[in-house]
Structures are given as C-alpha cells and as structure tokens.
C-alpha cells in the first residue's frame, strides 16, 4: 500500500497525463489502455499498482516498472520502442511499405528513441509537455469523423 503523500503525487501525475491528452478520444484511449494494462499485469505478474482510480497508460506502465524494479531508462526505451513500432505497423498496413522496410525504419529510429528516453528520465515533471499543434488539431477533428480505420 502506498503512503498518502506518494499516493497524492501519483494522482497528480495521472491527472497531468490525462490533461496532456489532446482530446476526449485520446484521453479515452489512454484510460482504456491503462485499465487493460493494469488488469493484464495483475493477471500475469500478480502485480497490484496500489491505486483504484483509472490510470493513464503511461502512468500504469511507470508504476509497473517501479514495482518490478526495472531500470528507468531501459524501461522508457522499451515503452517508446513499442509506441514507434505501433506507428510503423500502421504505416506498413496503410501505405505501400513492406515489413522489412518497417524494421529498417525502426532500427534507424532507435538512436532517437534512446536519446528521448534519456531526456524523459532526466526532465523535471513541471517541464513535461508537448507542442504538436497540427497533430493535436487532427486528433480532435478525428473524433467527429464517421468513417475511421483506427479509433485514434
């Protein structure tokens, strides 16, 4: 069980993670991923992250990493590699790009992933955020489209 001060700190980080979602659909996605990730880690690793409120996916993953005693930068690298791999997977299915080309792209992006993981591990929480106005605007517009291949 978490001490009350630590619990409040994690709740604040969780609120920040949802606040950084660029729209309702992105917030829903991270909530659902967090719920499912927490459920799976409980089933597979018997891991209870100690919070009952829905967690944003990155917060749930971070708590699991902490509870399992994993090294932070390596864990961040794996998390980011998974994110990049998902984007590449979408590109492989949506544009004329083969699996081999997708793997080449992933390999070429790994130095950037390592750099970003290092930055994420050393950046103070009050400096975390982003500015991707066109991507955020597109995500918000995407919520109202009738025909969509992917939710987000």
Strand-helix topology:
Blueprint: H1 4-19, H2 24-45, H3 57-68, H4 72-94, H5 99-122, H6 133-142
Helix pairs in contact: 2-3, 4-5
Q: What this model shows, in words?
A:
The protein has 6 helices and no strands. It is an all-alpha fold. 70% of the residues lie in helices and 0% in strands. It has helices spanning 4-19, 24-45, 57-68, 72-94, 99-122, 133-142.
Major sheet, described briefly?
A: none
Distance between the termini: 34 Å
Q: How many whole angstroms does the radius of gyration measure?
A: 17 Å
Instruction: Write the H/E string, N to C.
Output: HHHHHH
Instruction: Give the rounded overall mean pLDDT.
Output: 88
Helix content: over 70%
Shape category: globular
Characteristics:
mainly alpha; 152 residues; 6 helices
Put the structure in a nutshell:
By secondary structure, the chain is an all-alpha fold. Helix content is 70%, strand content 0%.
